Amino acid sequence: MTPEEKAKDLVDKFTVVGLQQRNEGIQCAIIAVDEIVKEIQCNALDFGAEVPLIVYTYWKNVKHEIQRL
Q1: Phi and psi at residue 7, to the nearest 5°
Q2: Where would you tag: which of 17, 39, 57, 64 has the fewest CB atoms within 10 A of its CB?
Q3: If you ran DSSP here, which 8-state letter would residue 17 be given?
Q4: Stated pTM of the model
Q5: Are 66 and 23 within 8 A, CB to CB?
Q6: What are the helix (H) ranges across the chain?
Q7: By mean pLDDT, which of 12-21, 26-35, 58-67 is the weakest?
Q8: Between the CA of residue 50 and those of 8, 9, 19, 44, what are the distances in Å?
Q9: How many structural domains is the chain composed of?
């Protein structure tokens, strides 16, 4: 799934019908992605594992696409 597709999918999952709810869905999706990125970073530190840059970049791009919606 591309970052654009993932962004739309996440926002749709958090959105209820209506413009105000769409904005809330966008904010919820941003929070979810921020949590994913934070866990990626914490897990890398906690377990000494190196997270592939592509994984980190993918989620940063998803966040960017959500913000564009």
Answers
A1: -60, -50
A2: 17
A3: S
A4: 0.84
A5: no
A6: 3-14, 19-47, 53-68
A7: 12-21
A8: 28, 28, 40, 6
A9: 1
